[in-house]
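Weekly modeling sync, notes
Attendees: S.R. (lead), two postdocs, one rotation student

Agenda item 3: backlog of single-chain predictions. S.R. asked that every request posted to the team notebook include the full sequence so nobody has to chase files. The rotation student volunteered to paste the first one in as an example of the format we agreed on. Action items at the bottom.

Example entry:
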Amino acid sequence: MPRIKLIATDIDGTILKYNFEFNQEVKDCITKLTQKGVKVVLVTGRMHSATDYIAEELGLDTPIVSYQGALVKSENEILYERHIDPNRAREIIHWACKNNVHLNLYMDDQLYVERDDAVIRRYTGERSAGFTVKSFEEIELKNINKLLVIDFEDTNKVTMWKDYLENKFEDLHFVKSMPFFCEVCHPEATKYHAVNCLKDFWGLKTEEILTIGDQDNDIALLKAGGIKVAMGNATEGLKAVANYITDTVNNNGFVKAIEKFVYNKIEV
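Predicted structure, as returned to the notebook:
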């Protein structure tokens, strides 16, 4: 088995527990990896501005993949970027307004909502993200990173909305990143595209990449790796494409996968 040179990892539910805390073992593991020259990249649906503090906490200086793959950004350089067509975004905004659906709008790494309510307070409070309240009709739509449909009360609604939007807008990418989130992105804004961008940037081979995640939006992520790891708490859909299922996030599943596939190839 080739030596793993890049670990592309999801954050929430993979290395970050559901109480939004890291196990110390995970932080220690990532420190050991970076000290031995293994690249660790965060690959997330989060905003870049709601991810860079996590990279800092983990001591990472590698590029960050955010917005499901719509943005790959190092400290001073954008390596990959895809935006939603403004006309398509306007259509989805009108649909959300008509159906009283909560919608987050992300432009230029800023989060906009039309009202300050319990939904946005819960979402941003859990992710240390700021937001701006403004009527979407008054906003010039440009550089749209993604749209996010949210319903914390009824996950069946989220599935229904995803299916409806997917059928109506075949030129966009829709994925559930959590049971209550439906992400709307450019068709080339996936974790697969982003990891492949980094693979080419660093001149790596697919078999030198380990990918790991827990939700359906990580299916694209796993497909970019030679070693595809699903967390023990992963969705059944993700487990179906993995070639290894590790322990849960609470039980240091990330660390256990690294011990199995990476530590035996490097001195730690």
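Discussion: group reviewed the output briefly. Residues 140 and 175 are 25 Å apart (CA to CA).
Action items: rotation student to repeat for the remaining queue; S.R. to check formatting next week.
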